[in-house]
Amino acid sequence: MTTNRDWKTSLRFFLLELAFYAALVVGYFFLVLALMGKWLLGLFEHHRQLYAVIALTLMVGQGFGLEALTRGLIGWLEPQRRKDER
């Protein structure tokens, strides 16, 4: 049976993971905007099909990258979670 302490520990780790993920998404957005903004705008205005392919590639790449980082974070936090539950 889940105790109140287990629930609070799980919620704390979930919120930590959510904050980490949100920071990565915002950071990635501004990095792409700063480094590729003008180039992407030029593609959007003149080569829409290529822009669509590159935009989708960036989105999929972001998804894979953030998933890998999140798995790493969970793997790093899991031993600490088990220690806190004892």
Descriptive account of the structure:
With 86 residues, the protein is mainly α. It has 2 helices and no strands. It has one domain (4-85). It has helices at 4-46, 48-85. The longest helix has 43 residues, at 4-46. The radius of gyration is 19 Å and the shape is elongated. The two termini are 15 Å apart. The mean pLDDT is 85.
Rounded to an integer in angstroms, the radius of gyration calculated over CA atoms is 19 Å
Count of separate structural domains: 1
Distance between the termini: 15 Å
The tally of strands reads 0
Q: State the low-pLDDT regions, or none.
A: none
| Helix-strand makeup class | mainly alpha
> Could you describe the largest sheet, including whether it forms a barrel?
none
Order of helices and strands: HH
**Percentage of residues assigned to helices:** over 70%
Task: Report the sheet-strand fraction.
Answer: under 5%
Could you report the average pLDDT, rounded to the nearest whole number? 85
- Total of DSSP H or I helical runs spanning 4+ residues: 2
Form type: elongated
